[in-house]
Amino acid sequence: MSIATAAEIAQAIRNVPDFPKPGIQFKDITPVLADAHLFSSSIDLLTEGFAPGSIDAVVGIDARGFIFAAAAAKKLEAGFIPVRKKGKLPYTTIEQDYALEYGHATVAIHTDALKPGARVLLLDDLLATGGTAAAAAALVQKLGAHIVGIGFVIELKFLHGREKLAGLPVRSLVTY
Ligand code: AMP
C-alpha cells in the first residue's frame, strides 16, 4: 500500500477544545496511532530521506514523542533514546530548564545516552512554542551529538516554535 499523505493524516487528528484547560485546542493524535496505515505512514514521512543505518539514535521526547521515535528507530535500525521529564530517569542525568507560559519545566537525559558525534534524529508529536524541543536539542548537543533532523507530526505555526530551533533542520507533517 502507498504511503498516506500528510493531508490524510491531518484528517485523522482530533481537535479537543479546552483540554487540559480552557483556551487550549488539544491536538489528539491517538486516532492516527490507532490506524495502522496512518501510523505507519507517519513514521515513513518523519524518516523520509534517512536511510537505515544513517542515524545512530532517534531521540524521543516524553511522552507522545516516544511512540513515534521508537517506531522510527526500528525502521532506521537505530537506537532509541528517551528525553524525560526531570526525576524519571534512574541513572545519572544532565538537565535542561525551559520556560513555560507560567513557570518553568525541566527535561533530562542519561549522561551516557549518546556518544560524541552520534547522528541524531529528534522527534516529538507536536511543536507549539518550541521550548520543549529546544531544551531536548540542547541536551543532545551538550552530550556532543549531532542533530541531523528534528521532526514533528504537528506544528502550531502561529506560536513560532521554529524560531527557538533556528539553524536546526526542522520538519513537520501537518501545520495549523
Ligand atoms: P512547546 O514546548 O510549547 O513546544 O510544547 C510542546 C509539547 O507540549 C509537546 O510535547 C506536545 O505534546 C505538548 N503540546 C503543546 N501544545 C499542545 C496541543 N495544543 N495539543 C497537544 N499537545 C500539545
Could you describe the 3D structure shown?
This protein has 176 residues and is α/β, with parallel strands linked by helices. The chain is 27% helix and 34% strand. The chain has five helices and nine strands. Strands 5-6-4-3-7-8-9 form a seven-stranded mixed sheet, with helices on both faces. A two-stranded antiparallel ribbon has the order 1-2. Helix 1 packs across helix 3 (36-46) and helix 3 crosses helix 4 (64-76). Adenosine monophosphate (AMP) is lined by residues 24-27, 61, 64, 124-133, 161. Adenosine monophosphate is lined by residues 24-27, 61, 64, 124-133, 161.
Provide a compact summary of the structure.
This protein has 5 helices and 9 strands, in the order αββααβαββββαββ.
Tags for this entry?
176 residues; alpha/beta; seven-stranded mixed sheet; two-stranded antiparallel ribbon; 9 strands; 27% helix; binds adenosine monophosphate
